[in-house]
Design brief:
Helices cover about 45% and strands about 10% of the residues. Strands 1-2-3-4-5-6-7-8 form an eight-stranded parallel sheet, with helices on one face. Helix 2 links the parallel strand 2 and strand 3. With about 260 residues, the protein is of the alpha/beta class. The structure holds ligand 8Y4. Ligand 8Y4 binds next to strand 5.
């Protein structure tokens, strides 16, 4: 899964401009490099980022969805949490909802239940802005298992079948570096839930705490996550990640896979 951020470029001409051409070129490059999914995000979840209205978010992501679809059949994922945004993007030709708030926003469960889209439910402790102030868990793995079971149950009660659900431990979302590393090392504990796992560690600060080179660090982390059972890795650097995965898959298959 290649990451495509569509937030305005405030350096351009002093105003806020959405460079559709830049975003599209970036998507095309990631597709050429072997991305199976493009994750389109119009709302920054970085600490300190300003909140975005549903209308602004839609104005950012809808043109990108249409433009990507015109050039490619790649799977399109929409990174959003707002019911209003989810409802509108679901009317377009998209393939996956990626929700860092795990369909907890008002109306989100009901909107997704009306579609047949798969959804990635990510774990986050707290809200962006405060989530990294002293994250604490009594039992990290147990807390996340309880959280996932609760969200899966909420989905099923709303009419979203478990076969549509992907889980994500939310690397960097309300976790210390040690928490993040434990979650990857013990990723197999979440395999017992029987659902596909997505991991996003690309260029995040925990990688930067270990090594200066976040590209090599992120590729190494992605490969470790795959080795522990991740089905999808959300990355900035698609080409280098695909290269590493080809070697991993060839070893697993005991033959050359290109
Ligand atoms: C540099 C660049 C440093 C980006 C940090 C970041 C995840 C996610 C994000 C994730 C899923 C990010 C939307 C944070 N992370 N969705 N989204 N899983 N499913 N930060 O781990 O990339 S945004």
């Amino acid at each position: 899964m290649g990451i495509l951020n569509v937030t305005p470029d405030s350096f351009y001409d002093g105003g806020d401009f959405l460079r559709l051409d830049h975003a599209l070129a970036h998507a095309e490059q990631m597709i050429d490099e072997g991305a199976d999914i493009i994750d389109v995000g119009g709302e920054s979840t970085r600490p300190g980022a300003e909140s975005v209205s549903a209308g602004d978010e839609l104005n950012r992501v809808l043109p990108i969805i249409k433009a990507i679809r015109t050039m490619s059949n790649v799977a399109i994922s929409i990174d959003s949490s707002k019911a209003e945004v989810l409802e509108e993007v679901a009317r377009h030709d998209i393939d996956l909802i990626n929700d860092v708030r795990a369909l907890a926003e008002v109306g989100a469960l009901e909107v997704i239940a009306q579609t047949d889209l798969p959804v990635c439910l990510m774990h986050m402790k707290g809200e962006p802005g405060k989530m990294q102030d002293n994250p604490y868990y009594d039992d990290l793995i147990e807390d996340l298992l309880v959280f996932f079971n609760e969200r899966i149950k909420a989905c099923r009660s709303a009419g979203i079948d478990a076969s549509r659900i992907i889980l994500d431990v939310g690397f960097g979302f309300g976790k210390s570096a040690a928490h993040n590393l434990e979650l990857i090392n013990k990723l197999d504990r979440f395999a017992e839930l029987g659902l596909p796992l997505l991991v996003g560690l690309s260029r995040k600060s925990t990688i930067g705490k270990i090594v200066d080179d976040r590209l090599i660090g992120s590729v190494s982390g992605a490969l470790a996550a795959i080795n522990k059972g991740a089905h999808i890795v959300r990355v900035h650097d698609v080409g280098p990640t695909v290269t590493a995965i080809k070697v991993w898959r060839s070893i697993a298959a005991e033959r050359v896979i290109d």
